[in-house]
Amino acid sequence: MKIFTPHYTSFGRRLLTEICTKNILGDKTTRSEIIASVVLIRPPLSAPRLSDIEEKYKQKQMEIEARNSLKSDFELQMEKDEKLLAKKRELEEQGKDLSELEGEIGITAAMKEDEWMKNAKVIKNKFVQIDDNEIRGNYKNLYRHPETNLILSVKQKFGSSYVSPWMLPQTNDVQNSLRGALEIAINEMFNGTIKMKMMGGAPFSYNKYKYPKKLRESRDIDYGEFFFFGAVLKDPSADIEVNDQLIADYQWLTAEEIDKKMKGKQYIKAAKMCIHQ
């Protein structure tokens, strides 16, 4: 049975978080630790800037569409409103009764447009900020690089003294399902301030990593079996709060920055598959 089918998202308590396999060269047992990791993406907030050629093509297309397209209901309503308002002004100048226009002039298209513009301004003020150098240099700012994906990278605390290098959020506390363990772990790491939407119930990628000698000897575990899940941040305006007992630091990085900050080519290659799906 394929390992990435939904059936394998629930390993059950019988596996706990370790798998023991016989070494093909002898009786020595190889101990592997099951680890669920998440590639949490803040999706683009805006379209990337157009090149000169793309801008020219866009203008030409808009001219062609404007020339060939029919008027929308809103445009027809605008024309009707203009005629009614002109007639209203004419009657007012002549001192005549406006009762004949009663029921025809209500909420005009222009009034609707003003309301839409106000709502658009509120949304822009909430979600769109100027992507200046100060914001770009603040790796905790969710509005940096609005035209591309950002990936959450963390320094996790393990035990009382060890702080990991930059890595993707992960957990080895897998009691029932990998996905469920990740959701609980992220909720605990960030005190419930990060809301994410998981991309399916099964991992999209896998990587087996051999631990350094000191770690193998201290923990009596040889390999980490990493199962990567994809997730999307629901609210980019969230005020993120970390659990200091679990997280030492965090950053939102582009794919290029991830390559520089995090070591382990196979690990990163497996994890970044999520971005291209």
Automatic annotation (TrEMBL):
Pfam families: MRP-L46. This is MRP-L46 domain-containing protein. It comes from the Eukaryota. GO terms for molecular function: structural constituent of ribosome. One of its GO terms (cellular component) is mitochondrial large ribosomal subunit. The lineage of its organism: Eukaryota, Metazoa, Ecdysozoa, Nematoda, Chromadorea. Signal peptide: none annotated. Residues 33-130 form the Large ribosomal subunit protein mL46 N-terminal domain. InterPro entries: Ribosomal_mL46, Ribosomal_mL46_N.
